[in-house]
Amino acid sequence: MKETVVSGIRSTGKLHLGNYYGALRNFVKMQEEYNCFFFIADLHSLTTHPTPGDLGRTVREVVVEYLAAGIDPEKSTIYIQSDVPEVAELYLYMNMNAYLGELERATAFKDKVRANPDNVNAGLLTYPVLMACDILLHHGTKVPVGKDQEQHLEMTRTFGNRFNRLYQVDYFKEAFAFTYSDKLVKIPGLDGNGKMGKSNGEASCVYLSDAPDVIRKKVMRAVSDSGPTEINQPKPEAIQNLFDLMKVVSKPDTLSHFEELYNTCTIRYGDFKKQLAEDMVLATDPVRSRIQEISNDQEYVQRVVKMGAEKASESARKTIREIRDIIGIKRLY
Ligand code: TRP
């Protein structure tokens, strides 16, 4: 039997190149080998109180972009978390043996409390319980997440094992973080330091849905410097980042051409960025047009999420039935 992969996708916001070349291309490969559940974590996003309008819009956007980027609804189960309310029931059960102390100690929780001291709600505290339920609901054993989610996975194992011990069953399996490819490409941002990511500022990100002119503008404004002054001078971070991006979107010949210009101090960053921007526009063109196409096809989007909801519900209902039985919740009528 194929192992089950579960991954929650944040419902806030659009995909950027970092998501695309990093996680997403692995999702696309994973769906060939595993039984994959990819869901839009709209319930999780309620901790920050999005407006109803924003919530609906961003959820749809994310579905469209994941489909455009290659998630295949015939191979994977792609669904919206709130379409499968069984997760909320499981969340209630699991909350009964998640302890205040361990929830308060979670790093992500402490970070959020520090960042938003006025919004320390119970949903935020129990966020890891809901996340555990997302995984346990489908008996996921592999979870493709980054380092920042390791602790949540450890909590998922704790909650599952604790349930097993409490009811003396061997019901929940342990889930582990899963790096699909050992050569994860790092996509730097345009702001001169670090990875591409919204937390590093909007200017660092090129979105898959950005129009060609927006991409050109962003790249032309990318942080650089006044240029190398010595032959074969090591590259400062901002410049190395632009070369790393070029490595991903341009032809090898283009890359080595600009490497050569850099090493001989004859590079002109204006030309370099222009080329980078054009190659970025080209590289993203197929996804951008798919986003347009899918976004305009309301009927297709509806069909996909309905199918996803049905597939996910089937697995969820089975789990809830079994859990109720284990806990001893029985209908008297
Ligand atoms: N917490 C994850 C994040 O911030 C999102 C998420 C929610 C998730 N539920 C999940 C990831 C279940 C994997 C499995 O990125």
From TrEMBL:
A motif ('HIGH' region) lies at residues 11-19. ATP binds at R10, S11, T12, G18, N19, G146, K147, D148, I187, K195, M196, G197, K198, S199. It is found in: Cytoplasm. It catalyses: tRNA(Trp) + L-tryptophan + ATP = L-tryptophyl-tRNA(Trp) + AMP + diphosphate + H(+). InterPro entries: aa-tRNA-synth_Ic, Rossmann-like_a/b/a_fold, Trp-tRNA-ligase, Trp-tRNA-ligase_bac-type, Trp-tRNA_synthetase. The keyword ATP-binding applies. GO terms for molecular function: ligase activity. Gene3D superfamilies: HUPs (3.40.50.620), Tyrosyl-Transfer RNA Synthetase (1.10.240.10). Keywords: Aminoacyl-tRNA synthetase, ATP-binding, Cytoplasm, Ligase, Nucleotide-binding, Protein biosynthesis. A motif ('KMSKS' region) lies at residues 195-199. The keyword Zinc-finger does not apply. Pfam families: tRNA-synt_1b (PF00579). L-tryptophan binds at D134. Its EC number is 6.1.1.2. Belongs to the class-I aminoacyl-tRNA synthetase family. Catalyzes the attachment of tryptophan to tRNA(Trp). Homodimer. This is Tryptophan--tRNA ligase. It comes from Sphingobacterium griseoflavum.
